Amino acid sequence: MPMNPDKHPFTPTLLRWYAANGRDLPWRHTSDPYPIWLSEVILQQTRISQGMAYWDRFMDRFPTVAHLAEAEEDEVLRLWQGLGYYSRARNLHAAAKQVVAAGGFPHSVAGLRELKGVGDYTACAIASFAFGEPAAVVDGNVYRVLSRYFGIDTPIDSSEGKKAFKQLAQDLLATDTPADYNQAIMDFGALVCTPAAPSCDRCPLQESCEALRTHRTGALPVKAKRTVQRKRHLIYIYIRHKGETAFRKRPLGDIWAGLWEPLLIESDELPSVEGHLLLLTKGVRHQLTHQDITADFYLWEVDERPPLPAGYQWMKEEEAASYGHSRLIDILLERLGEFVPEP
Question: How far apart are CA 290 and CA 180, in angstroms?
Answer without folding.
Answer: 34
